[in-house]
Amino acid sequence: MSRRKQLYEGKAKILYEGPEPGTLIQYFKDDATAFNAQKKATLDGKGVLNNRISEFVMLRLAEIGIPTHFIKRVNMREQLIKRVEIIPLEVICRNIAAGTMAKRLGIEEGEKLPRSIVEFCLKRDDLGDPVIAEEHIHAFGWATPEELDEIIAMTLRINDYLQGMFAGVGIRLVDFKIEFGRLDVDGGHQVILADEISPDSCRLWDMETNKKLDKDRFRRDLGDVTEAYTEVATRLGILKSNPPNLSIVTGDK
Ligand code: 5GP
Question: How much is the pLDDT for 190?
Fold first, then answer.
């Protein structure tokens, strides 16, 4: 098969030109990075699991009316998506104090927040994705006030739905990061959910034991990273319970 034109390579994904105008192929790599790529590893099967989990989540969100870039999964590692202009923001939604917010504000990790909090970081690897205020977004024109209102409303709706979805399988949604893009429609733009939602971009804790089932296992050297991602996929019903060994799960096309 002739290889498609590669348009972009990120830390965990590659984007290729899609089969039709306005489409892309999103390829999920096994590469894992943390702390602004200072820590790197390859985790066998991670890309396959994230492709499946992100597909599942995007489809569920589409069902509740969230517009997303997801069109269909093409194979074990690739999905067809709508081509968008990415808004240069990492939108973080938090329910429980953890990670950089716990550190920044001196709150103990695990403390329930008084309410869900939406934060913004500027997507700039060279600056370490700094936290920014809505004022910066407006002043520098990274998103219009109308776009930002839509982004916040969609983020809270996504949080609401995903908290329930994960709670249903015994998982606490501690926090997550999402990205949005602008889709060309009839001479204007529609803001839609882009990128991925997976254990790479969420904190997911087992409700009974608080066991981490997300990328913190990699960041904090806790081990069994793909096993934890497999557990998430299994609980969501994406993989059969007692999944076969990962070499079968990851048997790429
Ligand atoms: P924190 O700011 O505490 O490190 O991260 C908050 C949440 O956003 C976590 O669920 C984390 O996984 C996610 N997150 C923050 N920055 C990134 C990023 O650059 N890439 C990915 N995949 N997730 C991120």
Answer: 97
